[in-house]
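Thread: Newbie trying to understand structure tokens

Hi all, I'm a second-year student working on a class project, and my supervisor (Dr. K.) asked me to get a predicted structure for one chain before our next meeting. I've only ever worked with sequences, so writing a 3D structure as a token string is new to me. If someone could post the tokens and maybe explain what I'm looking at, I'd be very grateful. Here's the chain:
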Amino acid sequence: MQSQIKLDYCAFMYHTTPFRHTYKFGLENYIFRLQTEGLCQALIAGETEIIEPGDLLLFGPGDIYDLKIGELGPSGDYYVICSGEWLDEWWKLQRRAHKTKIGENSRIATIWQQLILEKRRFDGGNLALIDTLMKSLCYLLDRAIVDATSYTSGPKLLSYKIKHYIEEHASTLFTLDDVAKHAGLSVSRSVQLFKTEFGMSIMQYAQKVRLAMALELMGKSPLTLERIAEETGFGSYTYFHRVFQRYYGIAPGAYRKQRAVDDHGKV
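---
Reply by user tm_fold:
Sure, no problem. This is what the structure looks like when written as tokens:
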């Protein structure tokens, strides 16, 4: 299969000595870069700006690119240099700022890590998989940019930071202390901000996310209900049964049997 995307470089880099990456006459390819640790400097709209953890840089063909690393101490980042017709079409879909603060995002980091590992394979990796991962990265970056630009006030930003943490950790047993620590707030402040923004408690939202995960597994996997309770963050089947019954008015086992009957009757 011919690849729609050419991946020239893809890696995580940690620099402890000065380094400069510059294209004074314009790029030929696309450069995506996400700062994860420390600080560096980049030319943005003709001015040198400090790049902090959580800052996403997006540059395309023809853009002037100048990045200076090491002058402000060690610096770590994910980056990819790429090209291809699919990327050309994706790039035209909307105007993207050269710099956007998207913050910490484990989903983006996971996709980037998988892309790095696939590219690093001795055979160059599976081209179809590289295409899929790269497209996923592009769409996740788009979503992160929309999220970042749709809530700019402090309280709203923190509320969505909490929301994203819940979505990303719903399958694990986390506490309000874990959520508050991630947001850099006290437990009481985290609870109040989230309730004001979304009209429900942190744990109520976690239950909704976990139930959605459980419903999907109940319809598509052969896992036992006990195992589904564990996989979706409920911890025990007793607790899962109680929450499921309260939300849907039916026991998980009865729901699964009814769903099997309904699915069997479909043409």
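A couple of things are worth pointing out once you decode it. The chain has ten helices and nine strands. The domain at 6-150 is CATH 2.60.120.280 (Jelly Rolls). Feel free to ask follow-ups in this thread.
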